[in-house]
Amino acid sequence: MKLCFYNDEFKSIKEMSLPVSDLMIQRGVGVFDTIRTYRKRPHALSIHLKRLEESAKSIGIELPVGKKRLAEIIREGIDRMEGEVQMRVYVTGGDVFAGGIFPHPRYFIIFEPLEKAPKEDYVNGVVLHPIDMERPFPHIKSIFYLPAYIGRRQDKEAMEALYCPAGEITESSSSSFFMVIDGKIVTAPTERVLDGVMRQIVIKLAREAGLAVEMRCPLLSEVPRAQEAFITGSIKEILPVRRIGSQRISQVNGPISQYLQHLYAQRIEDYLE
Amino acid sequence: MKLCFYNDEFKSIKEMSLPVSDLMIQRGVGVFDTIRTYRKRPHALSIHLKRLEESAKSIGIELPVGKKRLAEIIREGIDRMEGEVQMRVYVTGGDVFAGGIFPHPRYFIIFEPLEKAPKEDYVNGVVLHPIDMERPFPHIKSIFYLPAYIGRRQDKEAMEALYCPAGEITESSSSSFFMVIDGKIVTAPTERVLDGVMRQIVIKLAREAGLAVEMRCPLLSEVPRAQEAFITGSIKEILPVRRIGSQRISQVNGPISQYLQHLYAQRIEDYLE
């Protein structure tokens, strides 16, 4: 069962549709954030809602509903679903006929049963397809995912496209990216990428555990000498990478990936709300 | 009155909505093309439908309806509307739950009364706001217009954002761009931009009239010595530019702009279908 909250009611997602005059359809003006539950409690809910608000603000959209009310709806949605849940909260530019700068944004929330990557992916690692471009407006979590589809067409095994403008690896289409080089965890600086919630947590946990974290874009040319690579995201958590384009990563799910997974598992509770 | 054709019927646009599970909403997977009428006949219809097909194909979407049938629907829509019409034909990625690579794309067509830019704009020229990025996948006319909104927030007078990656002017958010330098008409090469239908026509007319057309990106640094600048599009035709960022164009609607407008007006008939 998949639910959608829209216009003050919960409905089956099959019954829910958005006016074609909404700017999300007309002009791709839409932002969202993804949240998951552990033991039926939303993880890092406040951080996600704050980021949703900031994504919207960067385009000039004010949230059409308070964050407190959003949290209430999310809790009600979780209660209505069986088992663990993944949610996407969307905010749109509102109707094109409203004129002006987004006077009446719309919002809706989709609730689905939690669907993690298959277990094998955590053992064998996933494939990323490098593309020579930057994610447009990296601080905004917009609905623009065309590069992901175009990237994956070029490599059927690829789970995600990997943004590598001029050979500098920033992030993948739906995840943050990390590469272990000379024992250090290297990841793009926050100015260049979406400040992923899981990314923030992984950096914090790594530093607390005394691991070196270097905030610079790993280079595509460094892949051959990388010891490990992984991507992170709210639903996938910490997922090892086995191949980037034609280049294999020497160790899949190596000691640092496993250590971080272990540290994360121990601290999930801290972020449940 | 605004009409929408969807699911084999014409309805008022207010009654038309798209399932939230469509990839156009979920992931911004949508392409479109804009067509206008002159004397109730669609202009360059076949060229537009061909380009729509190519935009879709570049993402991996096959048109869910033949171009011949699309043309029939468009003619019927034009008949149902009063006066001149502008239409946007949209093709979406289809439902996210369909799985696979776009097995069931959706399409819909919006019909609106033709709305040209105000007459003053043709006399006084419009303002463009330069942004330091390339339009992603310039050959695809996708629904991704966030840069236009973000650009216009920075300059309230701006009609469109002007893509200027590394100072090279490619195109504006909804138009092709031309600048007259040393008496030559300079415009980005086709590899770098959307191959606009009006752009093709303007280049052809200019060359036939013996004007020099140089296919290279005009530079932002060349704006101070440009004699004229204009943008082109199916609805706006040939629209003069008066300012790009903080730099004024020396002559607004100068001799070359006016000559091309004149040549275009004489040849509209050739493209009516």
UniProtKB/TrEMBL annotation, chains A, B:
GO terms for biological process: amino acid biosynthetic process; carboxylic acid biosynthetic process. InterPro entries: Aminotrans_IV (IPR001544), Aminotransferase-like (IPR036038), BCAT-like_C (IPR043132), BCAT-like_N (IPR043131), Class-IV_PLP-Dep_Aminotrnsfr (IPR050571). Keywords: Aminotransferase, Lyase, Pyridoxal phosphate, Transferase. CDD domains: PLPDE_IV. It holds the Pfam family Aminotran_4. It comes from the Bacteria. GO terms for molecular function: lyase activity; transaminase activity. Its cofactor is pyridoxal 5'-phosphate. Belongs to the class-IV pyridoxal-phosphate-dependent aminotransferase family. This is Branched-chain amino acid aminotransferase/4-amino-4-deoxychorismate lyase. It comes from Acetomicrobium mobile (strain ATCC BAA-54 / DSM 13181 / JCM 12221 / NGA).
